[in-house]
Design a protein that fits this description.
The complex is a heterotrimer of chains A (about 160), B (about 260) and C (about 450).
Chain A lengths: L3 E7 L2 E7 L5 H8 L18 E4 L2 E4 L12 E3 L12 H8 L9 H14 L5 H7 L11 H17 L4
Parallel strand pairs in A: 1-5
Antiparallel strand pairs in A: 1-2, 3-4, 3-5
Helix pairs in contact in A: 2-5
Chain B lengths: L4 E3 L4 H9 L3 E3 L5 H6 L7 E4 L8 E4 L2 E5 L4 H6 L7 H4 L5 H4 L4 H4 L8 H8 L3 E6 L2 E6 H7 L6 E8 L6 E6 L10 E8 L2 E7 L6 E2 L1 H7 L6 H10 L14 H16 L2
Parallel strand pairs in B: 1-3, 2-3
Antiparallel strand pairs in B: 4-5, 5-8, 6-7, 6-8, 9-10, 10-11, 11-12
Helix pairs in contact in B: 9-10, 10-11
Chain C lengths: L33 H6 L14 E7 L5 E7 L1 H4 L4 E5 L8 E2 L12 E2 L5 E2 L5 E7 L2 H10 L1 E6 L6 H4 L24 E5 L2 H7 L2 E8 L12 E6 L5 E5 L4 H12 L6 E4 L16 H11 L3 E4 L2 H6 L7 E9 L5 E13 L5 H11 L9 E9 L14 H18 L3 H8 L18 H12 L5 H4 L10
Parallel strand pairs in C: 1-14, 12-13, 16-17
Antiparallel strand pairs in C: 1-7, 2-6, 2-8, 3-7, 4-5, 9-17, 10-15, 11-12, 11-14, 15-16
Helix pairs in contact in C: 6-7
Classes of the chains: A alpha+beta (about 160), B alpha+beta (about 260), C alpha+beta (about 450).
Protein name (chain C): Xanthine dehydrogenase family protein molybdopterin-binding subunit
Organism (chain C): Nonomuraea deserti
Keywords (chain C): Molybdenum, Oxidoreductase
């Protein structure tokens, strides 16, 4: 079967592109759509750097054959920033020094977004479980957990409708 | 040979048709896709279950029928399957649980596939479809011998355990997201106690020697330790990055005991 | 739940702030790169969009130690999408060593294996293809004939008479330091010290290789420019080092290369080996297209150089009062099959001995040993970290054996400003005494008055 046109709603916009059979969602986002926030760290679902939201839930984009999510909705880190404004998770990651090399940051923020969408007041254990599929080799995780707790607090305080 | 096609049929008939033509069945892709990406599989056609309508969970008269394409997340979210939540939380990460499926879990080599260990303890039945029609098979047979080429597991059926009859314990290197060193799952029904083990053989195994020893005896630490020692006759442990075969066999009695007496 | 936002504890640094003169200490300074990271706009090497990008994958050695009898690349060339298969003959200056830039000799490592492989996973042929899948398939289709040679995996085995020779370019299984078989320290007379000592303690320490495991694997994208230059996007930690070594391997002037780097998805000291850029440049020139060569996770774990395994034997001459009057150290660094940064790491280990202590008699032999294991190289603090593990474990064990407080043992032996070190340098700005005192205070570990009064600038209490 030749390459085919695949359609996805990415960050709220319908996008169409040509994909070879079995192309991963990660490869399509990065190479066909130029959305490079999701990273390739292991290509086996073990590191979490490629995590994006598929129909609202975090998935490892390296494990998704793009045909299987055709016409679905995908959210990437590029879609978290709106009009140049950082959201609570992003700003908390800066303020709490939750990034160092930055390679895991995209995946970390996406699982945090999904967590806070479903649970605005997570416990520390909830946060740790949510990021348990995401490897960070720099921070020792503590600043990331703190940042996500802080983001939840800011979001609750501002009661931003989302 | 690179992948030639990924079929995403929207019905079971479509799945069976594609599978009969030689396509490899893919549940959530957590096992198949890395093989594809690393070039370590010769498969040229994939058949995804993602849209085949096999993701549902139905519960009737104390029996749950779980679609093969139900994700581990979906299983955990079903109120009638709440007893499985602690077990599911020991499997991979929430992200991977959004992708990994019940059906796929049956075909994963140990030390992965803890849900299959649970299903073995629960004496689940696999509903299988193939070119020759439908059939049922005990999950033990599917785990031990697989299914015929062209067949696909459609659903697994489990009788829900009575309150207090379910026990699960998994020993791993980290608190979250780590493969099994030893997994123990057990269910008691009508005095009959089934114990299944993971991490201790290439496939999940029944600890029949332990079951025999515990039959009609109270679950004391001494009896459980004795049963755990006896269960060494039922296992075929292996070395991997998580633990040595020696270590797995050595700590089996400890974890068998902890499954019942946390 | 309590947590703090600022990573710096202002309370502990009040005195250091010196009024308001030192405004950075105790204040929060945002990382300049954080906004890029949280918006996903930071550009790592693999984020570079290069039109007509080709992909490179390696065929690697399936043996630890073997002569290559035959290489058949026809299977790779038959794979649709394969553009080129590169062998050692395609690399202008195939044999190199990264530290030649600081005068280290000899060149001892081929970019692509010539007639022999010296470790499992050594690169033999590079396959360049239209797609990653085709490159992988091509690499798998190459057939290499081997004639097995006995491997050696242990540093002390490798130094024995009659051990298999690992690296012919080196000529023996150890790196030669200015005519010596190891990096040495000779200071005072340790044997005499052992004779005078109340106690002699000898213990042995061993570490395993440690993988840096960056989340972003080692790799580069090489883009040929219209003017004939090559632009190298790399995640190296050592841009200029990489540029110079790559130019030497290619046999081109340095100004024909440009490195775009500095954004590293985790390095931990490890991304300094110049292992992907040279062959990717050869490939980019051969196919006149951009080429990407990036390790997959398995390659990162298996063939990227780890921190070296070390074996360290420490023998100390110790008096009843805790004074160490002699220290003899025999240290082995397992360099693996090739030198890379290990000769330097071994020198660092020697430079670190005998630890931050004033010991009047010191003898050390630090061997940089070649074995048929994955070449080891740099990782943060290499040479020093494992030596410290051994030295400080030794200090704790001595304290236990003498029934002494381990901090007091260290304070008695800690170097002071003005002391002559084993390397015949005068110690300056040591501050170890104060650091131990402060650490004891913070940990609630009580020190007697005499020890609290000690100072790194006086000899009080000694």
């Amino acid at each position: 079967m030749p390459s085919q046109i695949v359609s996805l709603v990415v960050n709220g916009e319908r996008r169409e592109f040509i994909a070879a059979p079995g192309a991963t969602l990660l490869a399509c986002l990065r190479e066909s759509l130029g959305l490079i926030a999701a990273k390739r760290g292991c290509a086996q679902g073990a590191c979490g750097t490629c995590t994006v939201l598929v129909d609202g839930r975090p998935e490892a984009a390296c494990l998704v054959a793009v045909e299987t999510v055709a016409d679905g909705s995908v959210r990437t880190l590029e879609g978290v920033t709106s009009g140049g404004e950082l959201d609570e998770v992003q700003s908390a990651f800066i303020d709490c020094f939750a990034t160092q090399c930055g390679f895991c940051t995209s995946g970390m923020i996406m699982v945090a977004e999904a967590l806070l969408d479903r649970n605005p007041d997570p416990s520390e254990d909830d946060v740790i479980e949510a990021i348990s599929g995401n490897v960070c080799r720099c921070t020792g995780y503590r600043p990331i957990v703190i940042a996500i707790m802080e983001a939840a607090r800011r979001r609750r305080e501002q009661a931003v409708p989302r | 040979m690179a992948i030639q096609a990924v079929h995403v049929p929207e019905s079971l008939d479509g799945v069976v048709a594609c599978s009969a033509r030689g396509g490899r069945i893919m549940g959530g892709g957590t096992v198949v896709m890395p093989q594809l990406t690393s070039g370590s599989t010769a498969v040229t056609e994939l058949v995804s279950l993602r849209r085949a309508g096999l993701g549902g969970v139905e519960v009737r008269d104390g029996v749950a029928t779980i679609g093969a394409a139900a994700t581990l997340t979906a299983v955990g979210e079903h109120p009638a399957l709440a007893f499985l939540r602690p077990a599911l939380r020991t499997i991979a990460s929430p992200t991977i649980r959004n992708q990994a499926t019940v059906g796929g879990n049956l075909f994963v080599a140990q030390p992965y596939g803890d849900l299959a260990v649970c299903l073995l303890a629960l004496d689940a039945t696999c509903e299988i479809a193939g070119p020759a029609g439908r059939r049922d098979a005990p999950v033990a047979d599917v785990l031990a011998a697989g299914i015929a080429a062209g067949e696909v597991v459609v659903a697994v059926r489990v009788t829900l355990p009575e309150p207090g009859a379910w026990h699960y314990h998994k020993a791993m290197r980290r608190r979250l997201n780590s493969a099994a060193i030893v997994t123990v799952a057990s269910v008691t029904s009508a005095g009959d106690r089934r114990i299944a083990l993971g991490g201790l053989a290439p496939r999940p195994v029944r600890a029949v020697s332990a079951e025999r020893l515990l039959s009609g005896r109270p679950l004391t630490p001494e009896n459980l330790t004795e049963a755990g020692e006896a269960a060494r006759a039922d296992i075929d442990p292996f070395d991997d990055a998580y633990a040595s075969a020696w270590y797995r066999a050595r700590v089996l009695p400890v974890h068998l005991r902890r499954a019942f007496l946390p | 739940m309590t947590y703090r936002l600022a990573p710096i504890d202002t309370g502990a640094f009040v005195a250091e702030r010196d009024g308001d003169h030192h405004t950075v200490i105790g204040s929060v300074v945002r990382r300049s790169d954080a906004r890029g990271h949280v918006t996903g706009r930071t550009e790592f090497f693999e984020d570079v969009a290069a039109p007509r990008l080709a992909h490179l994958k390696m065929h690697r050695s399936a043996r630890h130690h073997a002569r290559i009898t035959d290489v058949d690349v026809s299977g790779a060339l038959a794979v649709p999408g394969v553009l080129r298969v590169l062998t050692h003959a395609d690399v202008p200056n195939n044999v190199y060593t990264v530290l030649k830039l600081i005068g280290v000799e000899p060149d001892d490592e081929p970019v692509l294996a010539v007639d022999k492989v010296r470790y499992l996973g050594e690169p033999i042929c590079a396959v360049v293809a239209e797609t990653e899948a085709a490159a992988l398939e091509g690499a798998a289709a190459i057939e290499v004939g081997y004639e097995d040679l006995p491997p050696v995996f242990d540093v002390e085995e490798a130094l024995k008479e009659g051990a298999p020779l690992v690296n012919e370019y080196q000529g023996q299984n150890y790196f030669v330091y200015e005519g010596h078989h190891c990096r040495r320290i000779r200071f005072g007379d340790v044997e005499k010290a052992f004779g005078q000592a109340d106690h002699v303690f000898e213990w042995r320490y061993q570490s395993s290789p440690i993988e840096q495991a960056p989340v972003e694997t080692t790799g580069c994208v090489v883009v040929p420019q219209a003017d004939g230059r090559l632009r190298i996007h790399s995640d190296t930690q050592a841009c200029f080092f990489t540029l110079d070594n790559t130019a030497l391997i290619l046999g081109v002037p340095f100004n024909k290369l440009r490195i775009v780097g500095g954004t590293v998805g985790g390095g931990f000291g490890g991304k300094v080996d110049v292992v992907v850029e040279p062959i990717a440049c050869v490939a980019a020139m051969a196919v006149d297209r951009p080429v990407k060569f990036v390790y997959d996770r398995a390659e990162e774990m298996q063939v990227s150089s780890p921190r070296a395994a070390e074996r360290i034997v420490i023998k100390d001459a110790v008096m009843d009062d805790g004074r160490i009057i002699g220290r003899k150290v025999t240290l082995y660094v397992d360099a693996g099959a090739y030198a890379r940064h290990s000769p330097y790491g071994t020198t660092k280990a020697a430079a670190h001995l005998p630890g931050p202590y004033t010991i009047p008699n010191v003898w050390a032999d630090c061997h940089c040993v070649f074995t048929n294991r994955t070449p080891s190289s740099a990782m943060r603090g290499f040479g020093v970290t494992i030596a410290d593990f051994a030295l400080e474990s030794q200090m704790d064990r001595i304290a236990r054996a003498l029934d002494m407080d381990p901090l007091q043992l260290r304070l008695i032996n800690a170097y002071r400003d003005g002391d002559l070190k084993a390397h015949r340098k005068i110690a300056e700005g040591t501050a170890l005494v104060e650091v131990i005192q402060k650490a004891a205070e913070l940990a609630g570990h009580e020190l007697p008055e005499a020890y609290r009064r000690m100072s790194s600038t006086t000899r009080e209490g000694l």
